[in-house]
Amino acid sequence: QVQLVESGGGLVQPGGSLRLSCAASGMLFSVATMDWYRQAPGKQREFVAVAGSGGSTNYANSVKGRFTISRDNAKNTVYLQMNSLKPEDTAVYYCHFFGSRDYWGQGTQVTVSS
Question: pLDDT tens for residues 101-110?
Answer without folding.
Answer: 999 999 999 9
